Structure formats: C-alpha cells, structure tokens
Amino acid sequence: MWNDHQSLNLLANILLTGVLLAMIYAVGIRVLALPFFSLREVRVEAVDKSQTNNIRLAHITRDQIEQVIHNSVNGNFIMIDLKILQKAFMELPWVRSVKISRDWPPALDILLEEHKPLASWGEAALVNTNGEIFHAIMDNARLPVFTGPDKSNHLITRQYHIFNKLLQPTGYTVTEIALTPRHAWHVRLNTGTWLKLGRKQMEQRLKRYVAVHTQYNENLDWYGNSTYVDLRYANGFAVRIH
C-alpha cells in the first residue's frame, strides 16, 4: 500500500477533508454561540382566515404561550427546531393552526389561529365553525348540541346552517341536531319543539313546515306548546302537544 501512490493520495485527501470539516464545525459552533445569533424577540399574532382585520386571542392565554416557548425553544435563533415548537403549540386545546417563521434581527413570528366554537359535540367535545371536532373546555356557553355517527360532524354543520336559514321567516333557531345511525334527522328548535325530518327530502319538509307556520301563524297558538312535529308525511305533518 505504501508504494501505491494513488491510494496514499486518496487517504491523504480523506484525512485532509475530515480535518477541514472538523475545523468548520468547531468554528461554526463558536460563531453560532455569539450573542449576535441569540433570539431577541418572539412576536405572537392572532389570525382569522375569515377576517382581514386584527383580532385578539379569546381562549389561548399568555401564560400558555410563554410555557410552550419556555419548554420548546432551545438554543439560539438558528438552532431552534420550528417543527418541535409548532407541534407544542398544536397540543394546546384551542389552537386550530400555527405558522412559525424566523425574522431578522433574530426573532420568531408566530401566527396562531383559534378554534371558533359553533356547537357542542355530544357531551365530550366541541365543533368549530369549519365543522371540525376539537376537545376543549368552554364554561358558561349556551351552544347548539350536535350528535351523530362518527365522521358526520361536517355534514351536520352544513345542515345546521341550511336549517337555520330556512327557519328565518319563523324567527326560530336550531338548538340541537341529532342524526341517528340510520341517518334520520331530528331537529330541536329554541321553542323546545322537536322536528322529525326523516332521512330524505329534509329541506323540502322543513320548507313545508315554515310555509304553514308563516301562513297560519295567528291561528297556530298551539305551536308554542307542541313538543313533537313529524314531517315525514307526503302532504302534511303530525303534531303532538303536551
């Protein structure tokens, strides 16, 4: 081997490259340790994709933000692992999305989007305005209640808006929607009345209910006392009064 000049040159080049890389690494570590690369500022901003004006965080507290940063930010501005920090923020119950970027001079820009609660999902969770289920605690909130099979949350959310729009002429609103395992719809109004819409033609049936209510409102005082309206009939509906 010692007489093989090509092998010796190759070995010398490998050793030289290793020494150079070690020197670059050592210098780089010392340079990154300089105060010039120390994180100086963390800027947190609330965002709402449906609005363009500035908003404030309603449920994510300053203490929670500071705790996440304290536990997840290690090293200087360059060495911070943004994926770890993002994951830590996503573990907060009210965080729907987070975007983190580096800025200069050394700072972090954190954009937080909160869940906007629309309804309760049974007794165990909440549904946001995008129809997504999330787990958080909301005290003293009177929200509509949704219940249904797994993965039906987006469908129920869409129908909730449709039903409320159709009910506008009556002045009633939906306070509860129950979708059965067989996909039959039951809707409770703010009067306490339950509407049984069935599995098909729900909107047409609800329109018929609204039309009758609007036309004969003055003569339908018993509507306020009704507890159950079955709208599955072809040409009418049945009312049960308590």
How does this model look, in words?
The chain has about 240 residues and is an alpha/beta fold. It folds into 3 domains: about 1-35; about 35-115, membrane protein fhac (Ubiquitin-like (UB roll), Roll); about 120-240, Rossmann fold (3-Layer(aba) Sandwich). Strand 10, helix 5 and strand 11 (about 225-230) form a beta-alpha-beta unit. The protein has helices at about 5-30, 60-70, 80-90, 155-165, 200-215; strands at about 40-45, 95-105, 105-115, 115-120, 125-130, 135, 145, 175-180, 185-190, 195-200, 225-230, 240. The protein has 5 helices and 12 strands. The strands form 2 sheets. Strands 6-5-4-7-8-9-10-11-12 form a 9-stranded mixed beta sheet, with helices on one face. A 3-stranded mixed beta sheet has the order 1-3-2, with helices on one face. The model is unreliable at about 25-30 and about 30-35 (pLDDT under 50). It is elongated and about 90 Å long. Helix content is about 30%, strand content about 25%. Helix 2 runs antiparallel to helix 3. It is found in: Cell inner membrane; Membrane. It is a single-pass type II membrane protein. Keywords: Cell cycle, Cell division, Cell inner membrane, Cell membrane, Membrane, Transmembrane, Transmembrane helix. Part of a complex composed of FtsB, FtsL and FtsQ. Pfam families: FtsQ_DivIB_C (PF03799), POTRA_1 (PF08478).
